[in-house]
Q: What sequence folds into this?
């Protein structure tokens, strides 16, 4: 009886581990792209043995437990296709994780802490060193391609880039993706920031744990703004902060 009980405990524990299995999402989505609306015409969206399903943290979703994740009031999803247009993966994000909200406090541009040194190279070979950017405003966005909130705000962020293109403002988009993955992403989505691949060191140094995260560094190298998550007024706050710094 004791052996049977121990075996039962082992099986339950093993089942729990399997249910909570996590994978490297970037690796699993290699070679796939996020579906655009016109690509989904005539396609059925439902749990399928042929389609892999994940949470945005890499947790594998079993098909028998998948129905709850298709509730649009609880989860948003990104659909990934192969080059032939076949659905190969769903990535779900809990809606409450978007951290949607508003910030009604006035913009505060007083220096808060010294920015951590960086020496970055974007996908086009341009270099950005913190000490060489003194006198410029640095706007940093931390993102990744399976982050639905990141994608949702990109059109508005692009407008900021256009607005300040002739000013002393540098826009840097940092991600852990490698350059080929970023270029594949840009075939589907426009993002006008200077995109920095393989930014794991900066993600660690700037303690980024929520995506998207925005950081603004003033002309003297001090962080004056940090915004985390998808907020309705994020872009407006960024805009007001840049304007205020330009007038200093």
A:
């Amino acid at each position: 009886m004791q052996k049977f009980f121990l075996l039962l405990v082992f099986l339950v524990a093993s089942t729990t581990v399997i249910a909570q299995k996590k994978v490297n999402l970037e690796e699993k989505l290699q070679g796939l792209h996020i579906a655009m609306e016109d690509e989904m015409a005539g396609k059925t969206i439902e749990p399928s043995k042929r389609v892999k399903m994940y949470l945005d943290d890499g947790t594998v979703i079993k098909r028998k437990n998948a129905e709850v994740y298709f509730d649009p009031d609880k989860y948003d999803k990104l659909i990934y296709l192969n080059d032939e247009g076949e659905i190969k993966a769903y990535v779900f994000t809990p809606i409450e994780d978007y951290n949607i909200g508003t910030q009604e406090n006035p913009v505060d541009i007083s220096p808060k802490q010294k920015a951590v040194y960086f020496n970055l190279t974007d996908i086009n070979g341009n270099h950005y060193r913190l000490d060489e950017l003194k006198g410029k405003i640095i706007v940093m966005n931390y993102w990744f391609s399976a982050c639905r909130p990141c994608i949702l705000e990109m059109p508005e962020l692009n407008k900021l880039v256009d607005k300040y293109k002739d000013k002393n403002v540098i826009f840097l988009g940092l991600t852990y993706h490698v350059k080929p993955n970023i270029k594949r992403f840009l075939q589907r989505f426009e993002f006008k920031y200077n995109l920095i691949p393989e930014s794991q060191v900066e993600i660690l140094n700037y303690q980024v744990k929520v995506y998207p995260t925005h950081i603004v560094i003033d002309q003297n190298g001090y962080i004056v703004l940090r915004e985390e998550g998808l907020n309705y007024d994020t872009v407006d706050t960024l805009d007001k902060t840049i304007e205020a710094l330009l007038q200093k």
